[in-house]
Amino acid sequence: MPALSNISTKVIDGVSYYLPCNNDEVIELVNYAIEHSKVICTRGAGHSIPLIKSIEKEKNRIYLYLGRMRKVEIDEQNQIVKVQGGCNLGYDPNDPAGISTVENSLVYQIHQEGFAFPDLGGITHQTVGGFLSTGASGSSLTNPFNEYLESITMVTTMGGTATMISFRRTNQYDTNHFFAAGLSLGLFGVIVEARFRMCDAFIIRGQEKTLSISDWPVDFFGEEPNKLPLLTFFTQHDFQRIIWWPQKGLKKVQVWEAKKQVMPQKFSPIPYEQLTGKFIGIPIQVAGGWLLKKFGQISWLIQRKSFFRRTELGGWLANVFRNTLVPCILRQLVTNGTVQFKDTWYHGLPMDNSIDERLIPVWLSELWFPIHQSPEIIKEFRDYFEIRHDGPGTFNYEIYPAKATEFWISPGYRRQSIRMDIFWFAGNKQDPIKDFFLDFWNQLDEYEFRSHWGKFIPEQTQDELLFLFPKMKDWRVCRSLYDPVNVFLNDYWKHKLHL
Ligand SMILES: Cc1cc2nc3c(=O)[nH]c(=O)nc-3n(C[C@H](O)[C@H](O)[C@H](O)COP(=O)(O)OP(=O)(O)OC[C@H]3O[C@@H](n4cnc5c(N)ncnc54)[C@H](O)[C@@H]3O)c2cc1C
């Protein structure tokens, strides 16, 4: 650890992090890194897996965590909030610095003043810097979170020394570097501040329905013209997401949908509480985590032991496990029914906040496809499960839409998208890429998906990236402009983006 004035440090997961408390300290760290030819790696809540874990293994790095930079200033008259880059959107129960609270979170503070953001992701543990850097978003097709970003301020190395630069939104989408910096993977500099527009605080009312796909009045696979088209379903609600359990003998969906309403004078919420009940007397998340772990261990045995692949009895047992035992147990957990809820926007929209990531840790690969191909894509998944060596596996799949955006390397760049989130239980022994995600990436390649940058992403050639992201070339020029000395260029992105 290099000696640097009085900047505090903290060991997080075995890695020593600097916790600067103001812009001057960030500038000092960046200049120090330039002088000593080191690379700066900044983390937020550390939700981008495998990205953060990978960069934490690199050598000759200076690690930054902006957990002490979380000031929020609200300009009521102009409906603008200015926030420092380390502020968590909501409360982060796993904040490594132990500073995050509900009260110092961004969403809570703006709600107290009568304001809101138009949408949020499924959880709000993330930091402002991390959420923006990877282009994360919620499920609104009309008003996504990032559209409310007005400006972003970073400590860059433009000109070869630590330099603060602010990027402001205009409608010059092709030339304004705001649209490059607003999603820049930590490679342009350290985000120290962002300014967002706000809308009026609102409530959501909605329901989650768990039912068989055959009973859902929506045409999920594009094969039942008498049902509501999936695309129409997506546009009928302000917010929605679908959890799909495609296992044989299960074939269910959990459809969460909500609409926005004006905040009443008095309001008594009935929150949506996911996985908070009990299963045979055990808290459901403990039971779920345990079961997923056991499923993973058995799947691992089936995959590794030739008995299951080469003998008739082994094949039969593997089939009983996948197609009878797993669905039968899951059916006890995923029971049909409808749950109604009403809540404030900031508490209700992040519907997965109540899942304890330590009990049910998930790793994800999220693929964004053109939305008009939705039924085709879902059908492709279904048909692929029929022939895939392990069927759909023992977990679920999440589906939600996203509005097209102008951020240059967003997976939603000028393309309205359907997002397929492929879940992997992090407690599994197998290699998530080799033994799981890779098959999906290869199978779906022809559909020209773009991946969520904060999740597991395939290896793609430079030409493929340039084809998939038409503004990638311009974005790379900007990266060199704002970090000409490569102080922010870690090995992870150097390799993935061929930089
Ligand atoms: C359980 C779970 C649920 C999720 N739900 C959603 C969802 O609903 N929608 C969605 O789109 N995504 C979702 N994600 C992905 C997640 O939102 C993104 O990966 C997001 O980037 C994480 O933010 P973070 O604060 O944890 O950033 P980190 O993961 O810590 O960092 C992400 C990137 O941002 C950079 N970075 C962080 N802070 C700064 C800064 N101040 N300046 C410059 N660079 C910085 C890092 O270097 C890194 O490159 C989910 C992930 C998990 C694990």
Notes on the structure:
- By secondary structure, the chain is of the alpha+beta class.
- The protein has two domains: 9-200 and 467-497, 2-Layer Sandwich (Uridine Diphospho-n-acetylenolpyruvylglucosamine Reductase, domain 3); 206-280 and 331-458, 2-Layer Sandwich (Alpha-Beta Plaits), CATH 3.30.70.
- Helices cover 29% and strands 25% of the residues.
- The chain has 15 helices and 23 strands.
- It has helices at 23-35, 51-55, 106-112, 128-133, 178-181, 230-236, 284-304, 306-310, 312-333, 345-348, 374-387, 433-444, 462-468, 472-482, 491-497, and strands spanning 9-12, 15-18, 39-43, 61-65, 72-75, 80-84, 115-116, 149-156, 163-168, 190-197, 199-200, 202-212, 218-219, 228-229, 239-245, 252-262, 278-279, 282-283, 337-344, 362-370, 397-402, 417-425, 450-451.
- The chain has an eight-stranded antiparallel β-sheet. Strands 5-6-10-8-9 form a five-stranded antiparallel β-sheet. Strands 1-2-4-3 form a four-stranded mixed β-sheet, with helices on one face.
- Helix 7 runs antiparallel to helix 9.
- The mean pLDDT is 93.
- Bound molecules: flavin-adenine dinucleotide.
- Residues 42-48, 51-52, 66, 85, 121-123, 126-127, 129-131, 133-134, 136-137, 185-186, 190-191, 357, 362, 452, 454 line the site of flavin-adenine dinucleotide (FAD).
- Flavin-adenine dinucleotide is lined by residues 42-48, 51-52, 66, 85, 121-123, 126-127, 129-131, 133-134, 136-137, 185-186, 190-191, 357, 362, 452, 454.
